[in-house]
Amino acid sequence: MTDTDDTGAPRERTLLAWHRTSLAIVIGSVALARYGAEVVGPQVALAAAPGLVLAVVASVLALVAYRVPHGGRASRRPIGGDGRRFVVLAAAVVSVGAACVLLVVSRIL
Fold first, then answer.
1. Which domain holds residue 74?
2. Which residues cross the membrane (predicted)?
């Protein structure tokens, strides 16, 4: 294989990895909100909600970076970008982590 034989598979794997990671954060946020609302109250669900929203936003940003503006086909340029997806996904993880801390602290007290 040469450099010109790229079929887009690495870009597609990267996109799928972004979707997998975002989906894991969404599932964790939903599970935390459901469990936390039963145990502590709605404040845990409110703390987990930004994680859910930010994970969806990161997934959409990855999809936008994967698509070409014209035609909707995969581009051959790498999915790099300006780092917005990384910041949004990191904020989602921090939000879910804060909700977990809130849940644990409220259980201890």
1. 8-108
2. 21-37, 43-66, 86-108
Instruction: For residue 55, give every residue at least 6 positions away whose Cβ sits within 8 Å of its Cβ, in sequence order, or none.
Output: 21, 22, 23, 25, 26, 29, 89, 92
47: its two tokens: 């703390």
Residue with tokens 């910041």: 87
Q: Answer yes or no: are the C-beta atoms of 79 and 65 closer than 8 Å.
A: yes
pLDDT, tens digit (0-9, with 9 covering 90-100), for 34-76: 988 888 888 888 888 999 999 999 999 888 887 755 455 555 5
In a domain, 3, yes or no: no
Report how many domains make up the chain: 1
Residue 1 within any structural domain of the chain: no
Q: Pull the structure tokens for residue 14.
A: 């990267």
The count of other CB atoms within 10 Å of the CB of residue 59 is 23
Q: What is the pLDDT of residues 12-21, one digit of tens each?
A: 888 899 999 9
